[in-house]
Amino acid sequence: xxxxxxxLDPFCGCATTLVAAETLERQWIGIDIWQGSHNLVVxxxxxxxxxxxxxxxxxxxxxxxxxxxxxxxFLRVKESVKEPEGQRMSRAQMYEFLLAQNGSKCQGCxxxxxxxxYLELDHxxxxxxxxxxxxxxxILLCGPCNRLKSNTYTLSGLRRQNKKLGYMRQ
Length: 170
Prior knowledge:
alpha+beta; elongated
């Protein structure tokens, strides 16, 4: 398929996508923050596909034509929150502390285990949602609960999901 499409490569680097676009006779736009990419793109296009015409280069950001409103107001920028002061615990120390506090019981489904090795150290609030890597945000879960929770649920969300699925011990 040739012609018609415009290819945008916002990280054009060494011009691989631009060479492919040129080969397919498509218009293209390549963007990169590395100023040296301009020369690399021009040289690669010349050497690979024989393009030697004018390639426009600018180091100025484009002029905004909108009202400067947020393009995606539903996307939130995560704030960096300072973790609590105090002694930091190793993973092994957190694991032992939580075992002493809760026993060999999964905090997601309330199942008791004979062997503590069935329990895995996890975060209550996932790190991807800004959760701390601190003992106040750590829990012990069995493997199935840990996989179900992933980085999607908090502990309370996992427990609600387990109840809905009928996995909670009565």
